[in-house]
Each structure stands twice: as C-alpha cells, then as structure tokens.
Amino acid sequence: MSSEIITPAEAGGAAVMKSGAPGKWAQLWMDIKKNKVSYYFLAPFLLLFFIFTIVPIIMSVVLSFSYYNIIETPRFIGFSNYKLLFVDDDIFLKAVGITLKFAFITGPIGYILAFLLAWLISQIPQKYRFFYTLCFYLPSITSAVAMSVVWLYFFAGDRKGLLNHYLIQLGILNEPYLFLQNVDSIVPVIIIVSLWMSMGVGFLAFLAGLQNVPTDLYEAGSIDGVKYRWQQLWFITVPSVKPQLLFGAVMQVVSSLTVFDVSMRLVGFPSPLYAGHTIMAHLFDYAFTRFEMGYASAIAVLLFFLMFGMNRLIFRVLGRD
Amino acid sequence: MHKFKLRRLDYGGIFLYLFLTLFGLLMLLPLIYMAVTAVKPTSELFMFPPRFFVVNPTLMNFRDLLLITGTSAVPFSRFIFNSIIVTSAIVVGGVVISAMAAYPLAKHNMPFKSFIFNMIVAALMFSPLVLQIPQYLLISRSGLMNTYWAMILPYLAAPMGMFLMTQFLRQLPDALLEAARIDGASEWKVFWVLVMPMLKPAISTFALFSFISAWNDPYPSMVYTTVQEMKTLPLAIQTISGGAGVVARVGTLAAASFLMIIPTILVFIITQRMVLQTMAHSGLKE
User: Fold this and answer.
1) Residue A263 φ/ψ region, left for φ over 0, alpha for ψ in the -120 to 50 degree band, beta for the rest
2) Burial category of A195 from C-beta neighbours within 10 Å (exposed 0-12, middle 13-18, buried 19 and up)
3) What number is the ipTM of this complex?
4) Which position among A156, A222, B172, B250 has the lowest Cβ density within 10 Å, counted as fewest Cβ atoms?
C-alpha cells in the first residue's frame, strides 16, 4: 500500500522460506530489527494499551468463566454463565432483540445523516460552515445528564410536558400520552433522542476528511464529464473519504450497540416492563447492582462478538485501505 | 475550497441554505431551552401551561449553585483546577501517543503491523463497563490511588484516536514523506515536521472528542480518588445537584450543566478553526 525506503518483508521472504523454519524465523527477526524505528514509535501506545486495556480484557474474559462477586475470590464454573444467558435468561434475549431493533434503525440512519450533513456543509462557503457545524455538533457535546433535563420535560407524561401540551392544544390528543411509560413508545423515544445526539465523532471525521480531498480531483472530474453534484459525490467524494467512512461506520456500530445512557436517563432503570432494556443495561444491572462480575463479563464477551461480527461485514464492504 | 461555486439565486443553493438553517435551529432548540432554564426563577419552572422562554430571567440558580458549593470544605476552584490538569494531560498526551502509533501503522511496513492494528481496533469494541473492575484492581494494587496519574494514565492510549489518525494518514499521499526521506530527514523529523501538520484535521477532531469525554466523565474521580481535594468538576456537580430527576434542583442542575458546557464550546471553536484552516497550510496542494 505505501511505498517505503524500508524494504518490504515479502522481498526476500520467498527465497528464505524454502530453506525451512529456522531461516524464516531469522528472516523475521532481521525484519523486526530493520524496522525498529517503527516499533519505537509504537512503544508508548502499546505499553499503556497493554497495561490498561489488554490485561483488563483478558481478566474479564477469564472472569466470564467464573462466579465472582467482588468480595470472594472468583470460583471457576466453566460455561455455566453462557448457558444461563442463552437458556434461562429471558430478559437477556429480550434485551438482545431491543438492542438489535434499535441498532438497525439508528445505526444506518445516523450514519447516512452524519455523512450527508457533513457533505452539505462542505458545499457552502467556508465562512458559514462554522455556524452549521456548531448547530449539528453541539447536541453531542453536552452530557447525557444535562440533556435529560430537557428531554424529560419535553416528553413528560402529564399535561406539563411540552409535547403533550402542544398535541392537546392542536386537538390531536384528548388526554396526555405517557411517552416514557408506555411500552410502545419507549423505543421510538430513545431512537429520536439518540439520533439527535448522534452527530458525534463520525460527523467530525467526515467533515475533516472532506476538507482533505485534493481540489484537483474535482477539476479532473469535471474535465471527464462529471456534471452534477450527485455524480461528483458518488464518483469522487465517496472514494476519496473511504478511510473516514470506515472509521465512522465502526464508531457507529459501537455506539448504537452500546446505547444505555439515554435509555437510563429517560425511561429509568429498569425501564417499565423492560421495554427499554438493552444489552448494555443488562450488563450494567449484573455488574453494578447485583455485583455478579462473572455473569456481567460473559455478557460483555457476547456483546463484543456481536460488534466484531458486524464490523467484519463493514470492513468487507468498505475495504481495508 | 468549495467545489461548485453557488451561483447567485441558484435554486439548489437557496434550498440548501434553507434546509440547513431550519434543521440546524431544530437541533439547537433543546440547548437553547437548557440555557433558558438556567435563568428561570422557581415560579416559572413549574408553571402551567408550560412556557419555552423565560419571562423574568434571574441569576438565582447560579447563586444557589455557588452557595451550595461554598459550604463544602474544599474550595470550588480546586475542582476546576483538578479538571483542567487531568483533562489537558489526557488531551495532549493522548494526541501525541496516538499520532506516534498511527504513523508506522499507516505508513510503514513491518512485521505484525496488521496484527497490531486489528488488535487495537478490536479492543475498541470491548465494553468499557466490564473493564472498569480490572482497571480498578490494577490502579489500587499499584498504589496510584488519589494521584493525578490514576485519572490520566488509563485514558492515554485511546484506540479511537489511533484508528482515526491511521485512517487520515491513509488518505494522504506518500510522495511528500518520500521526498523528505530522500533529502535525508530522520523518521523522527519526518514525523514532527511533516506528519503532525498533515494530521491537523484528525488531531483537532480527536482533541475535541477526548476533551469532551474527559471533561464530562465523573467516573475516574469517583472511583480512583477517596479524598475531596482530588475530585473533579463533573463529580462535584453531580453530587451537588443530587443527580438527575431531583425536582427541586432542576434550575440549579441546568445552571451547572450550562457552566460545564462553556469550556467545551470554547474548545470546539478552537479546534474547528484548526480543521477549517488546515487546507491553506498543509502543503497538500500539488
């Protein structure tokens, strides 16, 4: 992919491979030594990453095979956490359903919306861009706690709720609708609020990526007969920001599968009839109210595989480079 | 560097502005409401019928906030100081460390490259909630409790920052790096003189993001500290306001949230300026 002064590993690899295993290892070692500068650059990150992320991940994977209540030492119980999750835990299966329903709606909508808005903003003159960026990004700057004040008031179930008040005045409703208590409206409310907050890091990455597209590509395009903005978007812009598109997609999957904060602040925890109960809420429930860390870890491992699987799909569509 | 100049009175252009403005204002509404709530007197907070705008604005909520905080043993300025120290260390350290990791992963070719990259991206998908207990054990066993290190170190190696910056470096042409190497620049020099300026949009994006998450997160100070002097702003405000949903303090909470948002808006303005100005200086133009 990139041209190097450092010789690529493949160059000498084929010749040495024939001479058997020791040669291969020696070759690898030489390669590593030759590229030691690259590893120096990586060292601080990898060191901290190893201590504060990899070790904890391994610890929680190990814990997922045990019973651990934080006070006693973990007791190994094999696969029973996983068995319990799939066979006996109805609420977990319900949570999976709600999370997937939520993710398949907010994920794509939020992603496409973020890209289209970033693209539209990049079409207008630079001096006006800032204002619009501010409008769209501000909602995700503010913390969930702060925003819940606003949204609770908006959706409140009594006549003091803003939405109910206006709907009654307009004659659409006769009596207040309990948006935050009614099983049918809980998921839609969470979806609306999350969409509102969804112009996050992906949106910013798209904006910055669109700034970086070399102008001469567009000039070349217009010579080649690209006439409409749509053609330009599809044939020039999208391929040029592919790395950012991939980044945005991965972040979107992670955030739409881990929705929890919004749900907890708006409909409470646990929500009425578990209607807003996501996988993350289930995890939180077992980790920090019941202190069953082993079981919580098993949920986390499953959530990880769910995300990982979805991201494999995305990597396949948007490519590695 | 907008591509197609909008001709004057071009219908598409008018529609575009109209749409963006209306949609933008709609997105802004809840925030305006929060700012308005912060200056509402108690009598208006629970008025019927509900009213969006304030009639008699007052600074009572802000005064209440300062009065409640004034009674605690530790001065409020200490919390602000802690927050600034921790957040700026996370932002600056995180940017440098992630950029240093992203450079070889995007532009070098060495053994285990894709393995390291995939591992870090995969780690992005592991639920942070479950990592908290093992992380807590690590911090408390290593004697870092009640130090700034405990609130900074775990957040320095951010997989997201590394991923974002790698993706940006991939978008950039290799020709420039190549030219510098032929001129005899060391890798270290290439990194500081060429890569860092080219990464400016990614750096500002990540700096903004990591500032916001570090600034708003009460968790590290809640778990890794036991003494009042080490608490940070979000935790202090959370304890003062009694959490969300406490009816009597809606106004105070809005005031507190409003104060919390101001620094994030400032950082947003600074970093977005950087993103918008990069093209002029990046040397990317052929």
Assistant:
1) alpha
2) middle
3) 0.83
4) A222
∠ CA(B199), CA(B204), CA(B206), 5° rounding? 95
Tokens representing B226 are 């036991």
Chain B: closest CA distance from residue A53 (Å): 7
Residue A161's closest CA among A54, A266, A279? A266
Q: Parse chain B into domains and list their residue ranges.
A: 39-281
The DSSP annotation for A101-153 comes to HHHHHHHHHHHHHHHHHHHHHHHS-HHHHHHHHHHHHHHHHS-HHHHHHHHHH
Residue A7 C-alpha, separation from nearest chain B C-alpha, in angstroms: 8
What are the Cα distances from residue A44, in Å, to A34, A75, A180, B212? 19, 35, 47, 23
Tell me which DSSP letter residue A52 carries.
Answer: I
Sign (positive or negative) of CA dihedral B238, B243, B246, B250: positive
- Give Cβ neighbours of residue A309 (< 8 Å, ≥ 6 apart): none
Interface test with chain B among A5, A45, A192, by most B beta carbons within 10 Å? A45
Q: Which CATH number describes the domain made up of B39-281?
A: 1.10.3720.10
* Per-residue pLDDT tens over the stretch A285-312: 888 888 888 999 999 999 999 999 998 8
Q: What pTM was estimated for this model as a whole?
A: 0.83
Give the CA radius of gyration of chain A.
Answer: 25
Between B249 and A273, where is the model more confident?
A273
